[in-house]
């Protein structure tokens, strides 16, 4: 129990720093691609930042592994984090490390299930759109027959690919670019299915809640009806025995009319 408490404490304290490091990694990855003519100092600073962030991710994983109660279960349930730590720093596989960190931060967030799922979907869409664009731009920019030459073309291609529209005006020509395209298409289909399932689950839960409220109202009305019937029966029973116990009262006489003599 002590190990679990220490692990939870570590995860709570490291959540914000990991999010900051994820943003730093995103900037360090994007700058050399968006500005390929940047100075060597900037290029080197971005590379150092990527290695530092990778080291922080690896340290976080090792600390959580040491604090976990069952290390085998931890490795089995956190395989994505392990893959992100073990993957070499090559493009575009290093993006998985950022995705892993965002998933880790999202798993630690304490939100309602619907809000958490919406946050996951929105973050996944923005992340895939942005980093898919950067990755394909870095691969296709210098390709001899490539037609994705700037960031605008890359973003447009990523958007049409994720939505499975595929206009065809921009398309990758290299093998790695096509691998990225397959990944974006599968991710777009998965996100679309997730959004559809989330909406369907919301409607189903809403209908079930309405049905439960209707059943409760019906049960309350039935209980009230039974109680009213019991009260009527009790009143009828009491009123049926009341005349024999009361003295006989003279019948009322209308004003101006004399009562009959015996």
In a few lines, what is going on in this structure?
With 262 residues, the chain is mainly α. The chain has helices at residues 2-34, 40-67, 71-77, 79-86, 95-108, 113-140, 151-162, 175-241.
Separation of the first and last Cα atoms: 100 Å
Order of helices and strands: HHHHHHHH
**Largest sheet descriptor:** none
Strand content: under 5%
**Overall pLDDT level:** 76
Radius of gyration: 36 Å
Which SSEs are present, and which pair or pack?
Elements: H1 2-34, H2 40-67, H3 71-77, H4 79-86, H5 95-108, H6 113-140, H7 151-162, H8 175-241
Helix pairs in contact: 1-2, 1-5, 1-6, 2-4, 4-5, 5-6, 6-7, 6-8
Q: Which structural traits does this protein have?
A:
single chain, 262 residues, mainly alpha, 8 helices, disordered C terminus
